[in-house]
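Subject: for your reference before the review

Hello V.,

The reviewers asked for a structural picture of the protein, and I figured it would be easier to keep everything in one thread rather than splitting it across files. Below is the amino acid sequence we used in the manuscript, unchanged from the supplementary table.
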Amino acid sequence: MNQRLAWAITGSGHYLRESLAILQTLKDVDVFLSKAAAEIIQQYGFQEQLINTGHRVYQDKTASSVPVELFYHGKYHTLVIAPATSNTIAKMAYGFSDSLVTNLYAQAGKTRVPSIVFACDTAPELESEAPREHMVKVYPRGIDLDNVSKLKTFEETTVVANMHDLTQAIQARLKTLT
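And here is what came back from the structure prediction:
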């Protein structure tokens, strides 16, 4: 069976443009959008960039997150979550699986599929793109940084803090599959 990469996007504009650019370089990917991601992609004007990736796109439209069953059938070799909001990181760090993205992460873990997570809040001070290509300073809370640290301890989970590390982690994972 030809396994694919699962890529989940949450509701953050932080490096969303760059995440979509990485997606355009990859083959055999299914993209999963949280409800907030669908809104943010529209708000930032990135719908065309997402469509241009040529990948299948699933949206969070069911209460039971039906697409997660694809993990049970061995359809995916890796889950990437990029970008991942502090809300998503907190839920994953404490075992919540109440949305499409957190359910994907839980099922990836339960089926021993490695996950690569680009966490938005990884430093006490960051610059982030707001809608209409304008940069803003953000100051993650201590609890946000603590949740990222907690998630780093999870088995089969690689947490990255920047686009270079995200690209490197994806390429390293793909290399292990060939």
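For the response letter, the relevant points are probably these. The helical segments are 16-24, 35-44, 47-51, 69-72, 86-93, 100-110, 142-151, 163-177. The chain has eight helices and eight strands.

Happy to draft the paragraph if you're swamped.

O.
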